[in-house]
Specification:
By secondary structure, the protein is mainly alpha-helical. The protein contains 2 helices and no strands. It has 2 domains: 33 residues; 64 residues. The chain is 94% helix and 0% strand. The termini are far apart.
């Protein structure tokens, strides 16, 4: 095999390799290509995901507001309960003092 034949055979082998590579690339592109219907479905899924995220954010905001309201209400109720307990304690003490006074008054009379 002389030099010219070698170059021609090498060129032919390289050209065939190029064609095989191009054909493989074309096949892979055809197989992995996204169709219009798939794009529409992906758009619908993206929209649904976006709406779900918005709903979740609204729910989180509502829950935070509700938690703040309930915490405030609990704090107020606790303060009212404490005030009622203090008033009840004072009333019991006053009642005991009055009972003691009445007992002393009855004994001295």
């Amino acid at each position: 095999m002389n030099r010219v034949e070698f170059i021609v055979v090498t060129a032919a082998v390289l050209f065939v390799a190029f064609l095989l590579g191009w054909f493989a690339s074309w096949i892979i592109h055809r197989v992995t290509r996204v169709t219009q219907s798939e794009m529409g479905e992906l758009d619908k899924m993206a929209q649904a995901l976006h709406e779900a995220e918005e709903t979740r954010d609204q729910a989180i905001t509502y829950m935070q507001q509700r938690e703040a309201e309930l915490t405030n209400q609990l704090t107020q109720t606790e303060a009212e309960r404490q005030a009622a307990m203090d008033a009840l304690r004072d009333t019991r003490q006053e009642a005991e003092e009055l009972r003691a006074y009445i007992e002393r008054d009855r004994e001295s009379a």
